[in-house]
Model the fold of this input.
Amino acid sequence: MRDVIDVTPVSLSYLVLGGFVVSFSMVSLAIKERLYIGEVVLGTGFGVIIGPYCANIFDPRSWGKESNEITLEVMRVVLATGLFAIGVELPGAYIREHVKSLLIMVVPTMAFGWFICAGFIQLLFPKLNFVSALVVSACLTPTDPVLASAIIGGKFAVKNVPGHIRRILAAESACNDGLAYPFLSISIYLTIEASTKVAFGKWFLIGWLYQVILGSVIGALLGWMFSFMMKFSHRKGLIDRESFVAQYLSLAIFTIGVASTLGSDDLLAAFAAGTAISWDGHFNTHTEDEVFSSVIDLVLNCACFIYIGAWLPFNQYDNDLLGIAVWKLVLLFVAFLALRRIPAMLLLYKWIPDVTNWKEALFCGHFGPMGVGAIFISTLAITRLSDEGGDPSDQEQLLSSMLHPIVSFVVLCSILIRTQLITYSQYCRS
Done:
């Protein structure tokens, strides 16, 4: 029997994921309507239960040096699929018509939260200098598109949140997740480069021109090209409805493959591709009322948050050597909750056409869940720090060691508290 039974981490992963999705799908309506709990919270909790600190069935951190690379790619695929779907589901030419609202909601709001929250990070963790605090803050600045879609995409959100607010929040979460690259890159360049002039030069040339702008152009071109090809195939009778729906996953993965191979912003490229492919509404017409994309989202989200739950480094949340304590992390989450978005939105909403009053501004400011994107960006930062040539300085080593404990704790609180608060308020109003 030992020659027949092969219990490996991969086979256990299939067993765990399949069992959870089957179980959740059987009782999902009762859980959502009676307990007001979504698959994100349940998936994370289930991951914690099967993780190394409970049942010890699944432990992503036991994979050694490959752990960060695997975590990075899992988060990348889930993010790219979610961003592509957001781009597709927005109305045709939405970005062009709402560019002013998006620019104000993304750039100054992110910059304000990034800078202010970095100050609190350095105050609570004085071993980090301000530049290192900016790196940590950059990981937690963007709104997570996966959590955002899970919150504002359900029927209760459709009933209780105005359509223009849901659309602008979805578009904003997609844009600012891709635009986290420049905030992260300038912080890392200032950390690893001896010259400030060299750091800002690389930031402009690589962070903005090559990653953000080129990534957006690549994604838009790929989306436009595939839109043209699918319309041609449809006219010739070469493609059916099911093949249109399959593009949600295949085109998202192809886009991030092209962009990441070239070293550009793959997340922004995926969003741009989704926006471009649905620009004239042809793709939407052939995919509306199809549930396959929703099924893909459910399975990927469940898998991702089970992975996150098992991945969380609970043993690092009280580390005297790094100066990390649970009470500091709790204070940091409260600071992020109050200052990351709300003050900027209340100050700027009069210049945002899609936000009509201070109540909507307050909701948009409060709505800023942190999740998959934060883990992706923090893991990317660690790989960038580790991949630099030469021996890293003490500050780099310290930053690399503190990134995941700080970011993961804030993400955990965001999943359990912020996500549930928004979800519960929507259910109660229905």
